[in-house]
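User: Teach me something about this protein's shape.
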Amino acid sequence: MTKYIFVYKNKNDWTNLPKEQVMQMMQAWGEWLGSMGSAVVDQGEAFRAGGKTVSAEGIDSADDMTSGYTIVEAKDFDEALAYAKKAPTLERGGRVEVYEAFGM
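Assistant: First, the predicted structure itself:
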């Protein structure tokens, strides 16, 4: 099995939503992660807005669209993409970038 990293991109900031809506969203995420069973290696974490980009030119504000990550194991890229197609963020206008990890 190969590890794949899901990077969530989202324009919405959860911190400004009503508590009930956040709870509904968290439930949807929990159900989705649970549906993948043992394929989930690391369910990841959500990111707060206000990240920074570091480059040779210095430090600048990040675009704040990256909202979290998850690591899964899948037999191939297609299976990883099938998992990602069911991510709750897609229902709210977000997207999932999928990357294959490889040992160095």
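Now, about its shape. The first helix runs from residue 19 to 35. The longest strand covers residues 66-74. If you'd like, I can walk through any region in more detail.
User: That's plenty for now, thanks!
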